[in-house]
Amino acid sequence: MSETDTVTDRPASAPKARARARLLQGGILLLLFALLPAVLVWFDRGYFYQLAMLALIFVLLAGSLHLVTGVAGLLHLGHAAFYGVGAYIAGLLAADHGIGFTIGLPLAGLGAAAIAFLVALPTMRLVSIYFAVATLAIGQMLFLVMQNWVAVTKGPNGVILFGGIDLFGLEIGSRLGIYYVVAVVVAVSIWVIHRLTDSYYGNALRSLREDDQCAGAMGLDTVRLKMEAFTIASFFAGIAGALWAYTTGYISPVDFDFFESILILAMVVVGGLGSLPGAILGALLLILLPEVLRDVGDVRNMLVGLVMFLSILFLPKGLFGEVPALALMRRHFDAAWPGAGERRVGWRG
Amino acid sequence: MTSVTGITRRTALGLALGTGLVIGGAAGAWAQEDPVVIGYQLPLTGNTAQYGQDFKTAAEIALEDFNASGRLPVPVEIIFEDSRSDAKEGVNIARKFVDNDDIVAVLGDFTSTVSMAAAQVYKQAGMPQLSQTASHPDYARISPYQFRNITTQAQEGEVNANWLWERGFRKVAVIAEQTDWGQAVVQGFTAPFEEMGGEIVYSEFFNRGLPDFRSIITKIQRAEPDAIYTGLFYEDGAQFLKQMEQLGADIPVHSTSAAYNQKLVELAGPAADDLYLTATFLPTSEGEHVQEFVAAWKAARDGQEPGQFPAQAYDAVNIMLDAVVRAWPDVTRESMREALAATEDFPGVTGVTSFDEDGEPEKQMTRARIVDGVFVEVQ
User: Fold this and answer.
1) CB within 8 Å: A156 and B179
2) Where is the signal peptide (chain B) (predicted)?
């Protein structure tokens, strides 16, 4: 997996690298929008559609947390609360005001981002463990609001959403249609997160993680950068929440409790801190593995734990660590530093 | 479902499987008809695994008796799937069950949240779903396919309101856990009690698993009620009763069938004495069904007594099996829904059960009291 050790004799020319990147991007799009749907249609089983959509939603959640915890290095223990805020905004708009997917989806993201911005104002000057505890408290606070503000959120009764997904007045009823909606939203979001991660902006965030005082001395506005990362991540968590609400039809506070935050965090850590492909792999692993192991019986959760434990033990940098992820982005996606495709990542080159 | 391609593919698969079976099972008893299959989604692991494991034991007892009874020419099978009380997994299982054409009806889930989320799938697919415990006020109204075997708080609250009124209590403090069920407990009791002319002097919700009830108890004492009506499960109930005793609060306490569990007495000790509660199931009851079930449960569980929830699960499974018998030989999802809806005066261990037009059970409630650590019926 480590691409850093291979040396190519001949540096590829820039157009060649770009063509290869196009090919790879096309391949991913083909997989997501043609191959996977073809497989789903072939099997024609609601269970597989459900798994595909759930996996995509958690890919987005892990991808968004990756920006805060992986790239900017802020341990965030309350991400599921913003996932919940998005779900509740979408759910309540649909249930109480008849506002559907087209407007509800962006509002869910913006609402989650707005709340994240407000709670970030006082917390962003906290560092390390103090920040982590603050996010824990924020997550718990938002959870308790969902649970106890019965007049607005309907409290533990949860929210039932009637009707499915409408796109500009067009009702999307078929399973395949809903899959495509989810896949497009997640793909666009992940692409944005990728552009934020593998760019000078991403490197600025990385510098916060490595040494924020040094980053500050270099003229970076560290507080502002942290706020931006936190708010953007919450925006995408809100989008994921809305997708969950629309595809499930029923939400309740326990879907967004502390354990959900930990699950998302585990995806990011197991996948590889600072690596977007890692976060995606981590989400796929932790969503699909418990389902694959269903036939094993009651010990399946223990097996999932064991896999996590072993992966942390033997791959402490994650299933797809940051260095190989950066190398992949540079070499094969022509991203982050165009033209620098063949230069090796890390300190050895 | 795209029927044309679906059928051809299924036929192809069936042919392939069939060929294998013929080769492999030539000597086997393969003339026998396929079993009727029912799905059961329940938490077998996770925070609420103790309940799910109880349901599984209860279902196995019921199923074994049924298959031995010969009421159907074919056996009934139950497929258990673990939902971990997680809505994500609950929905996955629901899709999986719906995909399985052999499954004609589903039991479960345990919590309202998971039952409600899964119900959205069953509603669309037209799969009858019978939950032994889902208590959300809107659950049974989701669609004609949802049924439950737990009394609603609208029924239980009224019985309790009458009972407290009869005992001469006019000022009552109400506390309940902050869940959909707890909300329903308070509403179900408050409305009829106030209608009779009673007064709710204090009402409070607490989050499940609260270790310290002292501030709530102090506030209750300050409100000077004649009695306390509580919507809590046995774990919280034990904490509450112990701390009531520690604070010397000498106010009569009433509760619902959810607090009915032998573990309440084990955890609270003498503090549990004189708790009044409604129940639908008493293992000390002399009914034949009850004693059979209690004996089978004790055999399966090292002499433990079954609580309210396993009894509800046991009845839910039996109601389902009874519906299979009535739907036989044409057992489909639709005929199962009709058979379930037609359930009337089913004699179970939790009393006689009928479903109303919403799929809500109508049950008889028993009044009980703890005397020297034993639940006894109050006449």
Assistant:
1) yes
2) 1-31
